[in-house]
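Listing S7. Sequence submitted for prediction.
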Amino acid sequence: MDHYDGLNPGIFFDAAATAQLVFTTDLRIVAANKRYCALLGRQPRDLIGYQVFEAFPANPDDPEASAEAELTASIEAVVATGKEQQMPLRQHDVREADGRYATRYWRVRNSPIFADDARPDKVTHIIQTAEDVTRNTLGERADAARQRAAMRGAELSYFELDPVSGHLIQSPQLDALFGFDPEDTNDAVEPFLDRFHPDDRAEARAEIERVARTIGADLHLNSRIILPDGTMRWVIGRGESVRDPDTQTVRIVGIVLDVTAIRENEARLSEALAARDLMIAEVNHRVKNSLQMVTSILNLEGSATVDPAARSSLRAATARVNAVAAIHASLYEDADVSSVWIDRYLKRLTTHLRLSLSSDARGLQITYDAESIRLDTDRAVSLSLAVNELVTNSFKHAYGPEDDGTVTITLRRADENMILLEVADDGTGPGADRASSDAKSSGLGQRLIAGMAASLGGTIEEDQTNGWRTRILFPE
């Protein structure tokens, strides 16, 4: 360097009040002033000649470390524009003499140096001015964490815990919640942990240890505490871990809430719901028994009736009542008293229809294929009655006395919001033309089918190709 008035300009660089580092455009360090070396705990020989990130490697335990990429982008901008670049606040931890990394936050300004006399517009070096703002940044974040904890409610049980030493700073409300006088605990966390329920204590300690391992981790405690008089209270703890701006140690700050009343209300509500479900189950059981009694009476009437038409009508009425009774039997047996797995019910209904229609004696088969679908009680009753009528109609109209055949019941989801019920037969007997057959009968079965489809909110499609096929499409 040239000398001016007998002074070396390097003296001014070394004596600057700000930390400054000079490096080439490929990030190789050529100079560092005293302030910079003191700030980073390095000697010039530890820096000069090294690449910036050889001298200051990223913290391998910080997966979000991105200072190298940001510095490279900033230098490229300085070289391209010849103008100073101010980098945003950035964390870049510094490796200490013992090999551990200390958390550091920096504000950095990169300025161009034009040292090529032949190319006065060419940026040859960068002078970097660095400001360590770790204490202010961590202080702001700790204050923000405290404010977030305080904002969760006024007059709450606030605490600040050093998880390593066990030192606790707490509000009087926390002492009162755990049944302590202010002088009882000596600002230690152990007396508080000792009042956790024995079954919850290990989990509480593990949660504190988990949160202490990562800055910014959220604390979630849901535990019981036992007071000196034996009273049990439910509490929840909410907070987060921060780094102390003075000591760099981890702190956990947060609040504790007494939620005993909420838990007791939840328990009472659960008991009330259980009692309600028990009552509904009992009602379903009684309805099932009453309907079975009705079917018994109808069977007796049918046996005593000599008129074939009356006997047929009574048999049909018995089948319809049995279809409804089976639904209530399913509700009584299931934990959910308001709905049924309709696929399981169809299996039971198919067995009942085989017996009531004497399908084996006639050489006819009933098969079913149903997806696992749960329906509420009212719609399950409507669907069961529709299936009962459709299968009965197939047996009545599609086959002659000597015919063999198969009636197939299918239930599946047609798309995300619709369910398709299909009952099909392969009958081609003299009564297979369902329209002409119904014209000769009362048409009650068809009216029931239409009514049940309407109660399901569905539509009916019929097709007579190689038998008879009825589809009911309804919303889930």
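Caption to Listing S7: primary sequence and predicted structure tokens for the chain studied. Confidence is low (pLDDT under 50) at residues 1-7, 436-441. The chain has 16 helices and 20 strands.
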